[in-house]
């Protein structure tokens, strides 16, 4: 066996980025270096990983199978590296925490203040993003733990725990015709107006209108509702903020089953939760239960 983990990483990155040039940019390498590394990997494995008869990157059948093996092997390597780091450098010296931007700020803001009070010596890195982005921060080692709204299932290389939930509802801008309609007629009337839908990869959100716009941010959806671009299902705490161009109004739609939005904590499988991580998990549950 002559192939290396670095070659496997270049192979996986090329697939994920969609081209050799983009993979080279992400990895900080020359495109020729990436192409050469993958050619050597193919020679060592004895199979062609990519169909080079096309302009765009496309895996061969063998490449599709070996991609899964390469991803699993790299995940195991990352797990080993994280556990070794935790054991050798001290579990509480540093912590990178990723937070879904749509979580209630009353919860995340207070949590951060309390971390500063109870753990003044910890070196904290705080990252924010969409639900998908914060999970990727954990996957790529930028964060040890993340809190986000559940938007579909997670790959097997994550560990997770349910933390709590927040309420959601149907919102329109103030003075929208739907605010004047009878509750019994709203199901029929909702289809007349554009629905603004939360967009997440590999998750099909419920759509009740044939006219749809999508965004990967609840805040972006709320801004569009305030601009009279449609109606949306939003977390109540986001819709009730006061900095929109128009106030948002929640309308009663009993025919829609809107369960609370579930929140989870995720970390990379094999990483031992430190003392501060256990404390954060417990405290987040407590704070979210009060929302």
Automatic annotation (TrEMBL):
Q: Name one Pfam family in it.
A: LysR_substrate
Entry annotated with the keyword rRNA processing: no
- What keywords are annotated for this sequence in UniProt? DNA-binding, Transcription, Transcription regulation
CDD domains, per database record: PBP2_LTTR_substrate
Asked if Lipid biosynthesis is a keyword of the record, the answer is no
Taxonomically, the superkingdom here is Bacteria
Domain (HTH lysR-type) spans 3-60
The entry's family comment says: Belongs to the LysR transcriptional regulatory family.
Protein name per UniProt: LysR family transcriptional regulator
- Annotated source species: Vitreoscilla stercoraria
